[in-house]
Design goal:
The structure holds two protein chains of two kinds.
Chain A lengths: L1 H33 L10 E8 L2 E9 L5 E10 L4 E5 L5 E2 L2 H21 L5 E3 L1
Antiparallel strand pairs in A: 1-2, 2-3, 3-4, 4-5
Chain B lengths: L5 E3 L8 H27 L23 H7 L13 H19 L6 H71 L1
The chains are: A alpha+beta, B mainly alpha.
């Protein structure tokens, strides 16, 4: 009985470590992705990352003219025939052609930077 | 960089998460995103390779250009197909080509291997035919002249004969009458 509990706790601990490692990797990817678009606004922070196969997140924080903290999170949902975005509780809307082109470039740049800076040790470029 | 050209150094003692993320980014995540953009822009009839956009959204300042962006900006797909300043030239060339094609339609097809021999034969044959025709024409002229000469001669003797016959006859009749009278 005790052996089973210990085994279960060990498994749970292992799963937590894996989940924590996965989150840390995404956090690091988000920092790297945020550098694609240049410097953030003064006192601000920017993140851009891939959440899963069909979801990309862009998060921006900055201080407004009154010194108040502002933030905006944009979620891009990749569909087969287009890309929808939801911004801070607003309803989904189809992105414009210009934004689609920028999104495309951002995704390619993200892959390149993340591969070079984070996953180079698991990648053999042939 | 494409996931097809990547090999993952999977170490089974190391945690799986870095490999999972690397496989996701170099596989379905980027593929799905690019495919969706291509489909979307393609449906709008726009060139998905167009460049010049600087920010992801309206509220973001102009981004620093990555290597990928720079390489994309140097690529203009239109140049590899038809340069815009060549379009007018193409438009003027096309009618000429159509005329040539029409004129070619009236020319019978000739087997190129036999073409030289046939043309040589045609030249030899035409030369011999011309000589033969000329000889025939000369012969006809000579025959015609001969006939004409015969005809001329016949007509002359006929005139002579017609002119002399009555006289002879008259003379003969007169001579016979004289003989009868003498008798």
């Amino acid at each position: 009985m005790i052996k089973r509990i210990v085994k279960s706790l060990a498994k749970q601990r292992r799963e937590e470590r894996k989940a924590e490692l996965y989150r840390n990797l995404i956090r690091r990817e988000a920092q790297i992705g945020g550098e694609i678009f240049g410097n953030p606004r003064p006192g601000g922070r920017r993140e851009f990352f891939c959440l899963d196969e069909r979801t990309w997140i862009w998060h921006e924080e900055w201080k407004d003219s009154k010194g108040q903290n502002q933030s905006m999170t944009t979620r891009y949902d990749v569909r087969t025939d287009g890309i929808l975005k939801a911004q801070d509780g607003q309803p989904y809307q189809l992105i414009s052609a210009d934004e689609a082109r920028t999104f495309r470039k951002a995704v390619l740049a993200y892959r390149e930077k993340v591969n070079n800076e984070l996953y180079s040790f698991v990648l053999n470029k042939s | 960089m494409n996931s097809e050209f990547l090999k993952f150094n999977r170490n089974y003692d190391a945690p799986d998460e870095p490999f999972i993320r690397a496989e996701l980014i170099n596989g379905p995540a980027v593929f799905n995103a690019l495919h969706a953009v291509e489909t979307y822009l393609g449906a709008m009839g726009e060139n998905s390779e167009a460049v010049g956009v600087t920010a992801l959204g309206d509220t973001v300042e102009a981004p620093a250009k990555s290597m990928v962006e720079s390489s994309l900006e140097s690529y203009n797909p239109g140049e590899t197909i038809i340069q815009s300043d060549k379009v007018d030239e193409l438009a003027t060339v096309t009618p000429i080509m159509q005329k040539t094609e029409k004129s070619l339609e009236t020319v019978p097809t000739i087997n190129p291997e036999q073409d030289n021999d046939q043309s040589l034969q045609a030249k030899v044959l035409s030369s011999a035919e011309q000589k033969q025709k000329q000889a025939l024409a000369d012969a006809r002229d000579a025959t015609a002249k001969a006939y004409q000469a015969i005809a001329d001669a016949q007509s002359t003797s006929a005139v002579t004969a017609s002119a002399s016959t009555p006289a002879n006859n008259t003379y003969q009749m007169d001579y016979e009458m004289d003989d009868q009278r003498a008798a």
